Amino acid sequence: VVSTDADRGLILIRGAVPGSKGAWILVRDAAKVALPANAPKPAAIRAIATNGGAKNDAPATVDAPATEGAE
Questions:
Q1: Residue 52 to residues 14, 40, 43, 46, 60, Cα–Cα distance (Å)
Q2: Do the Cβ atoms of 38 and 46 come closer than 8 Å?
């Protein structure tokens, strides 16, 4: 990784990368090594971790009471 541009969401990479020049590549976490606890995370994931997940653990939908003859 040469540098990053957070405003445009770019990671500039130099070196041996499979594919043609100017092509898109997929960047993901290593499969063989566990993620360190102090590794930087995207803001959305960080917010969920600090808020303790969902604010309301109740089901998102509420079933209406059944009425006779309603279909």
A1: 38, 18, 14, 10, 18
A2: no
CB atoms within 10 A of CB 38: 5
| Residue 12 near residue 1 (C-beta atoms within 8 A) | yes
C-alpha 20/C-alpha 29 separation (Å) is: 22
Give the type of residue at 20: S
Mean pLDDT (the chain, rounded): 73
Backbone dihedral angles phi then psi of residue 46, each to the nearest 5 degrees: -65, -40
Structure token pair of residue 55: 């604010």
pTM, 2 dp: 0.35
Q: How far is the C-alpha of 46 from the C-alpha of 40, rounded, in Å?
A: 9
Residue pLDDT, tens place only, 28-40: 777 888 878 887 7
Cα 57 from Cα 53, distance rounded (Å):
9
